[in-house]
Structures are given as C-alpha cells and as structure tokens.
Amino acid sequence: MKVYTGTDAAADLATVAATARRAEAAGYDGLHVSETVHDPFLLALAALQATERITVRTSVALAFVRSPVAVAYTAWDLAAMSGGRFHLGLGSQIRQNIEERYAASWSAPAPRMREYVRTLRAVFETFRTGELVPEVGEHYRFTRMQPYFNPGPDADTPAPPIYLGGVGRRMCTVAGETADGLITHPTNTDTRYLVDECLPALQTGAGARPLDTFEVVAGLQVVTGATDDAVTAERERRRRLFAFLYSTPAYRGALERHGHPDLQDTLADLVRHDRWDRLRDVVTDDILGTLVPTARYDRLADVIRERLEPVRAFGVSTGVTLALPENPDHDRFVADVVAELQQM
Predict the structure, then answer these.
(1) Model pLDDT for residues 312-342, shown as the tens digit of each residue
(2) What is the DSSP secondary-structure string of 286-329?
C-alpha cells in the first residue's frame, strides 16, 4: 500500500517545499498538491525541486478551465525535469465554480473528461514520437502540431500517469476506462461506497482491461494522536470540519448510505446559522467514527487496513492519504504508521 500526504489548502511555494521535504523524510511515497488559492502546477514544481524520491501529484487540478494541450506541455515538462516523479491528477468541479469563479464554460463532466483524457494521451504520444497523433471529439479537436512546437521526439520522458478525482458512478466509470488511478474524496471513502459503488463502476469502465496496475487512492481523513487525550481533542476539531464538509448537498449520499438521510439538511442549517454549539448533539461520536477512522498512532495502521481490506480484495492497487501532523515533532509517530501501511 502506498501512502501519500497533502498540502494545506493555502500553502504557498515556500510552504509546499518545506512540506514536501517533511513528507520525504517521514517515508511517504508521495505528496498531493491541491488547487485552491495557488496554481497547482507551480506548487508541484516547488515540491519536486525540494525532493529527490517522492511522487508529486496534483490532487486535483481542474481540467475544464484549461486546454488539454496546455496541460500536456506543463505535465510533460514536470515529468521530464523530475525523472518521472510527477503525476497528473485532474478533477471536474461543480458547474457554479466553473462558470462563475473561473469564467469558463461547463458541460456534462463525465463525457467531457473522457475526451479530455484521450486528448492528453494523444498529445503525450505526439511528444514521445515527434509525430502528430490526432484526436477529435465533441469538445476538443487536436489536429495540428508543427515540428517547431513539438518537444519530441522524446522517448526518455515517461508520460505522466493520469489520475481522476471522482465521486459519482459516471466519473468512476470514466476513470476505469481512461485513467491510471482514481483519487476518492474524503466524504466518499467509506468502505460501503468503495465496494458498492466506486469499484463496480471502475470495473464497468475498464471492461476487459485488467485493473491490477490501476491505483485507487483512498482520500482518508483520520482522527489520531499520540495519547487518548490527544485523540479526544482532535475529534472535537474534526467534528467541526465534518459538519462543514457534509453540509454540502453533493455529499448527502455518504450520510444516506449509513442511515442518516436527514443529517445533511440539519448540518446545512446549523452551518448557515453558525450554530456550532449544537454539533456534539448532531454529529455524535458514532457518526464521526463511522466515516472518519479514529485511533492513536500506535493503532492507526490496523484501523486503516481493516477499512481498506475489502477494496484490496478487488485486485486493484491501493493507496491512502494520511496527513502530516500539525506538530513536526510528531512526524516520528506518523513515520511508523507510514512504514506499517507500506508493508501491507
């Protein structure tokens, strides 16, 4: 099992470099950089330059606000300069953000992402061979690449693996059909979702294609600490974050799967009226523990293993996200957890 950590949403270029060095020192396999308030490709560049071993993956860069050819140039350069340590993670985002925050056009995400990934692969092959590999679809038309603009032929640079971030069955199906891996959202990483919805959709998309090299990266959030008191304190902090995340209508399904069909509406109302004082009554320890693995550092690897064992039974490669501690002095604890998970 591979273990990845992520950057803080507001991480800048200096911060992400320091985080990358911490992750490498703690034994992680890779670092996920997000797209929030900084360009994820610049963050990836800083992380790659600061490290020697770990994979750096965008998790996730927004696809539909960028040309697939422009993304291919950037991804190819990052892969070349890092010796293949860069992975391209892509996501779709919701319509309102695409149209109103990015001033870009939106269309049905699953079929568009299918075309997007196919176009990327055509461009990567064009760079590898030095010869145009055209790809024409409804949304993207790649039919021109003069030698002057082609960085190839380049048989030495490995084409960056493509990972998709996805929640719904349609996007998981597209991932199984076109991608090298899937990164699940923290709100949809419970075992029931993975086994009943995500993995069957991946297999549908894959068809006859074997998934033994396909990686499902479970985007876990955890409640942990060195002592029972530390776990209790972290649980209270996570209770607030849990309420904020699951107040979003798109994540209602995770609550419904576990018998809480009305909880999303309740959380949305509490967050809207800033009633955080009621969270303990609404987000009980049982609800929180069902969706967020909770254990001291010395038990955490076993808890995560138990959660993901049914996923591994499907024959896919399995990865997991595990946050670095806020206190760097605790990196030694999480390093032990990382090592245990990697041996599974």
Answers:
(1) 888 898 999 999 999 999 999 999 999 999 9
(2) HHHHHHS-B--HHHHHHHHHHHHHHHHTTT-EEEEE-PPPSSGG
